[in-house]
Amino acid sequence: MPIKNRFAELQADITAWRRDLHENPEILFDTVRTAGVVAEKLKEFGVDSIETGVGRTGVVGVIKGKTDTSGKVIGLRADMDALPILEATGLDYASKTPGAMHACGHDGHTAMLLGAAKYLAETRNFDGTVVVIFQPAEEGGGGGREMCEDGMMDKYGIQEVYGMHNWPGVPLGQFAIRPGPFFAGTDQFEVVVQGSGGHAAKPNETIDPTVATSQLVLALQTIASRNVDPVEQIVVSVTSFETASKAFNVIPPSVTIRGTIRTLTPETKKLAEERFKAICTATCAAYGCEAEIDWRPGYPPMVNSEAQTAFAAEVAAGVAGKCDLAEITMGGEDFAYMLNERPGAYILVGNGDSAPVHTPDYNFNDEAIPAGCSWWAEIVEKRMPAA
Ligand SMILES: [Zn+2]
Ligand SMILES: [Zn+2]
After folding, report:
1. Residues 283 and 351 in one domain
2. Among residues of the chain, what percentage have pLDDT more than 90?
3. Which numbered ligand comes closest to the C-alpha of 144?
4. CA dist 130 to 7, 150, 377, Å?
5. Is the pLDDT of residue 1 over 80?
6. What radius of gyration, in Å, describes the C-alpha atoms of the chain?
7. Residue 72 confidence class, pLDDT cut points 50, 70, 90
8. What residues have their beta carbon closer than 5 A to ion ligand 2?
9. Residue 132 shares a structural domain with residue 278
10. 242-256 per-residue burial string, b: 16 or more CB within 10 A, e: under 16
């Protein structure tokens, strides 16, 4: 079953919706206009019920099949938020809001899921229920977590969830997926190493935090090299090292470091946090300093369920002729929270040879729309075949 003809017919409309969203990007939970557009379109499509304000500014729509003897309920999720980036594409539908830009293609995700919702509400050629989920704040705000915390999964009786991301480097309209750990858990830290400053010529009268922090940065690398099982993946990156002084002859009283730790399993994530805190405290103590640790837990690792991933890959191969094995990415993905609550799968749809996501030149490729929409529709029609 290749691309559905209906999506070839709808492609111009879906492209227009996508470009309107691209022109009007909204960041994190501020997706008020976007949520309004989504809710209005779902109403126009005749979906059975619409709820707004889920997870602050998320939208949920319910579409019932012609029959419901299966009792199955499948959730399909798209993200709606943009990034704080000044767009440099020069497109005629470029962002009208300076400093906000759809640089991760969430405009494409929202438009494709709307397209699928229109088709599913028109045809209802399935036995069960579809819940379309439009979430805010994927880019670091935890909008997916907030929708889950609002009780969405139980309220709608969702049994499985599916998600999709456009992906530069995967051929246009092709798919890639992998079972198991797929996206990383993304914790962040800030540590203030407190010493005691003074004249650079009299270090013996100070407790120099720059030397202690330098040792600390190196010691933190042993989490990856000495603590975590070498077959597991982990990234420990100190990304900022700031002293309180810019002078050549002053030993500063404190140093602040920041960074991120990326892991692929809950066990590694926990081990990394424990070792991080122990190394900070003990290394600083060895040099007479004190470590004030601010550990900021981020998204959990995103883990694709085996059975749903095999099914999603089969559907993708049906649409595009094949489905490749995706590589693990150490980036984070808020869909992890939904996959922690329900089995499901997250797939990549190719954006072709484009600029990378999160850059000012990036743009979602509208030619991926028929493939993306067909995948959504087929997930529903094949998982809950018409009675
Ligand atoms: Zn992104
Ligand atoms: Zn994204």
Report:
1. no
2. 98
3. 2
4. 18, 19, 10
5. no
6. 24
7. very high
8. 104
9. no
10. ebeeeeeeebbbbbb
